[in-house]
Amino acid sequence: MIAPLLLSLALAAPAEPEVVRIGSKKFTESVLLGELAAQLAEASGAVAVRHAELGGTRVLWEALLRGDVDLYPEYTGTLTREILAGEAPGGEDGLRSALAARGVRLTRPLGFDDSYAVGVTEELAARLGLRRISDLARHPELRLAFSNEFMDRADGWAALRDVYGLPQRGVRGLDHDVAYRALAGGEIDATDLYTTDAEIRRYGLRVLVDDRRAFPEYQAVLVYRADLAARAPLALEAVARLEGRIPVDRMIAMNARARLDGVPAPTVAADFLREALGLSVAAPVAGTMSRILGRTAEHLLLVGVALTLSVALAVPLGIWAARRPGAGRVVLGAVGVVQTIPSLALLVGLLPLLGIGARPAVAALVVYGLLPIVRNTHAGLTGLSPEVRESALALALSPWARLRLVELPLASPSILAGIKTSAVLTVGTATLGALIGAGGYGQPILAGIRLASTGLILEGAIPAALLALAVQGLFDLAGRVLVPRGLRVSQPLRLPAPADPAGR
Question: Are 369 and 306 in contact (CB under 8 A)?
């Protein structure tokens, strides 16, 4: 009697909604395509978890293989020339077979080709007679700068230089959106474009003919994990409705609305789905205050967890370094060397181990937070006068009692100053976590750079600055409570100025 009742209740219980994790790269078109997929998945009844504006191609691809994301927008040329470089899969069937061997599938093309191109201003093109990419070889004086990813891709600058024999030297890497503004402002002479970019029309640029076919075809597709068909079949079926439904002119128009008119990506996506597919969806656009509060919670979590772990590791290391001079030199040298590792390199290097999101960001913040605390703990303890140590010995205190009752209280101003320095640095460095999906104040800053929106940049930068000031003030107040009254004297930090977190 009970078993049939339990069975009937189980059958009557609502099924868990399908969860689909959707990623996108940090340029507008990828964000829009990811949002289109997310809204279609939600319309099918699934829960769409958005990981928008992650780093470049490799970050998304590795996240897909690990299972951190289930689906993201990609391009056939990128798959063949960058991700599967060296395998040379022949045609669509070869591409699908090579991806299937990795547990990945792709949709049919979405309807438009977004190839790489090289662009110059119309004024420069007219003055120098530039019509084709091969014309650049006649002008070694031209200043070339390309997007950072293009500089490193197998189908990027190296391939372009070799195919056309370009003589230019000192080619720089820039953020894609910054490169457009530098080109329009005359700071550079040529850069890489995406052929669906709205900025081509906005800045009146000349797209040079790829006369030697250095760039392959870049049909837009969605790549997804093979197990998604079993886990979320309805969501995958809904997302597949985009196949062949986005002509190039519609994609350019959507890019223009988001990039030039400042319309939020969810609104642009919802409008397209209503007009092209007859699907009415609610665009999830949060208000400014709601966004700031959400980002504040994310940022505080990153900073709080990272700082707690930094203190828990660094103070004992500083004590050990002070007690064991030989080992201390090794410890101080090690944390100093770690501090010089570029932030972006460390974040990306942690992705294979920890995946995307908060975990690699916290790990990187912990590493960068060690140096101020270790050095100040070491300096505070080794700077105690010999008379103090002799007095503690005369009282026959055990080493632990001397440390707890005498040495740490006397060194507390220096230790607290190191923790305060680490906390302020952590608040600023945590903004880089947005590049790997950790959220926080870096998210609106990245979006503001992408959209050339000062308002969005300030939406992240001002709260980050205010939080840093608040943290400094809280530590000043904590000093009045934690530091003995007789030791409350301003002490200069025995610490070199750390490098700018964004420019390590």
Answer: yes
